[in-house]
């Protein structure tokens, strides 16, 4: 018998708590796990020895938690170096912890890998498992990431509403979408399109650098045709020189411990684009919104599929820990369309830790400013049903 | 027998289409109404003689429409002068229109009043009825406005999630909320609070001018106590000199035809506040989001009560038109708490047209930076059930 610890790292998502609940409920079935601790604020809580006991959390609390957005144990953006990890291992030893379940993105997979190695060096037989989460959907190996479907649902519903708003009061509307340096979430803004002329009419992804000239020309073409234009732009879009537009705008760009530039939490990119488009095209009504943290932490708007998968991933990590030393849980799609189904498998931490995954070329249209049907087929099962909408203003005049 | 026209004006809401559907379904019961036209883009469509026929829209379409955000007939921000209204009346005469149903805010009530008067002068026996809508909840006479409950639900769910996000990654978070020059919607950001230390911890309303010094001191006090702080700020907040902060920030502030300054569609206020707080308090993590148009046009997130009331208001306008020449539909609360109930009544257009309604003094706490229990009692029935959430990180450490 030994103890286990679970924690959550990086940016919150709408279903990271579902994965946590999966770990908690499966740990109860694991004969070799005694106490399950939750480390508060991830690695930062571990080095400070700040744990709560998750062994006896009530089922009712677990169900509410599984449906709650954000990280129920708190999070951290610390990037542990060797000395930091050694501190962690000493705490693990003191508490007889031999299982480490870490829910996070690729930086967290990397931390998991290092923790597993240093534990080995320090003579602790620690099992270390990574459970994927990110709204950005940029993890390798897995078909998609828990957290993405829920954020995708949010931005799809948002753009459905925003497009109808833009029909009512026409003009150019620019929406800046999260996703860091991958275009997956921006791609999802188009999932709710129902009519031929529904927006977003243009989408710009980090994978396809674009000049202000090209973007303005694209917008002008749509506006000339429809009298309006809705544009979804990734916070991570790059200019043709390869530099992040967002970075260019921030004289003192904030960089986190992992070397990531702070792209969210400011409306600068949206406002810059609106001002540029307004002055270049001479269109009176140009508006811009930055969707911000709403995309990852909105209460009451989970994708059911996403929440179920996140929970399964949490449970599976505990199951893998019975017969394995370390690994990352991944999803494989074994059925498509109405037969959509996933199977879980284990992959090496290194495979997930080192790089991120771009929006696939086959999901981007030839112009580089929209998605393909293949993307809709890929993403719709993750999002689930979207509401239908009606607009009457385009009916024949009498 | 005569024809009728219905249209929608001003900013969209989540239930303005429910009111439209109410007009359409009740017009079918009205023996004296022949064809019901929809004017596309409000008064702008009327002067251009751009109408669609709403008489035979299918029930299925109507139900989807009633659940769709934004204005299904399109909208307009035109402010008709005398010549403009005369053009409208000429179109009405040509089309044998003797009923005018206009869904909008106080500017629309005013338009309705003028249209009714000019029709009289021009010898047209026109019945003109205003149906209230606004997410701002700033119309006089009525207990509350259709559109407010749905927007209130959105911001309540948003702040529930945002507060959990801020627990996970502590710092100062500032959210800029719509509402123009009334604090009703900003007040609603606190409706989802469940725990004593849940945010928003501070709320700033246009009704209570506040200096940067005071706001910074308030934030510091919360941050010193909790290690984090979530702040909801109305887009219409005023400095102590009475001027809009948003206006101060816009060198070339856009003003619409009604003389309203454009407060939405830019992240400038949020970014300004974040920069100020960061430099004044020396707190590393300060983020700001501007919720923007999501608050009024998000697909799939209606308040059920709001949608039902909006529809009733639409139907009632048609019923009033049988025995009255003009008026505005208003709501009166005849039961509170679990017995919440409203009755509809008619008020004069002038009563709604001339002024707006501030957030009531009794709903603002003595410090001017939060709400009272009386506001929760007032607003909760309009929003309906909110999701419950859990956070474990504040449990006792073991």
TrEMBL record, chains A, B:
It comes from the Bacteria. Non-allosteric. Keywords: Cytoplasm, Glycolysis, Kinase, Magnesium, Metal-binding, Transferase. Residues 5-318 form the Phosphofructokinase domain. The gene is pfp_1. SUPFAM superfamilies: Phosphofructokinase (SSF53784). The record marks 133 as: Important for catalytic activity. Its cofactor is Mg(2+). One of its GO terms (biological process) is fructose 6-phosphate metabolic process. Pathway: Carbohydrate degradation; glycolysis; D-glyceraldehyde 3-phosphate and glycerone phosphate from D-glucose: step 3/4. GO terms for molecular function: 6-phosphofructokinase activity; diphosphate-fructose-6-phosphate 1-phosphotransferase activity; metal ion binding. It comes from Anaerohalosphaera lusitana. Homodimer. The record marks 107 as: Important for catalytic activity and substrate specificity. This is Pyrophosphate--fructose 6-phosphate 1-phosphotransferase.
């Amino acid at each position: 018998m030994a103890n286990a610890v679970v924690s959550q790292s990086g940016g919150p998502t709408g279903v990271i708590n579902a994965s946590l609940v999966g770990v908690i409920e499966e740990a109860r079935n694991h004969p070799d796990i005694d106490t399950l601790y939750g480390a508060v604020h991830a690695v930062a809580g571990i080095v400070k020895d700040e744990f709560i006991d998750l062994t006896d959390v009530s089922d009712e609390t677990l169900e509410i938690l599984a449906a709650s957005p954000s990280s129920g144990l708190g999070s951290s953006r610390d990037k542990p170096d060797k000395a930091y990890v050694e501190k962690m291992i000493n705490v693990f030893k003191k508490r007889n912890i031999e299982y480490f379940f870490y829910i996070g993105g690729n930086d967290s997979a990397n931390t998991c890998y290092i923790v597993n190695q240093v534990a080995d060096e320090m003579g602790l037989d620690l099992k270390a498992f990574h459970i994927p989460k990110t709204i950005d959907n940029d993890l390798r190996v897995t078909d998609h990431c828990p957290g993405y479907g829920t954020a995708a649902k949010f931005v799809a519903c948002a753009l459905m509403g925003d497009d109808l708003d833009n029909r009512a009061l026409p003009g150019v509307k620019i929406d800046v979408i999260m996703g860091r340096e991958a275009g997956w979430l921006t791609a999802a803004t188009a999932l709710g399109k129902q009519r031929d002329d529904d927006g977003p009419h243009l989408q710009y992804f980090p994978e396809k650098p674009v000049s202000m000239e090209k973007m303005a020309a694209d917008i002008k073409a749509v506006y000339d045709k429809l009298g309006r234009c809705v544009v979804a732009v990734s916070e991570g879009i790059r200019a043709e020189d390869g530099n992040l537009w967002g970075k260019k705008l921030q004289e003192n760009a904030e960089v986190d411990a992992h070397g990531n530039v702070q792209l969210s939490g400011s409306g600068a990119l949206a406002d810059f684009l609106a001002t540029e488009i307004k002055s270049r095209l001479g269109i009176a009504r140009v508006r811009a919104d930055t969707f911000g943290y709403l995309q990852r932490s909105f209460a009451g708007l989970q994708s059911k599929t996403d929440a179920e998968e996140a929970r399964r991933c949490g449970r599976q990590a505990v199951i893998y820990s019975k017969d394995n030393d370390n690994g990352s849980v991944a999803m494989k799609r074994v059925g498509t369309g109405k037969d959509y189904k996933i199977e879980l498998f284990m992959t090496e931490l290194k495979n997930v830790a080192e790089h991120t995954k771009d929006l696939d070329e086959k999901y981007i249209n030839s112009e580089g400013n929209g998605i393909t049907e293949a993307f809709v087929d890929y993403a719709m099962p993750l999002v689930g049903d979207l509401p239908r909408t009606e607009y009457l203003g385009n009916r024949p005049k009498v």
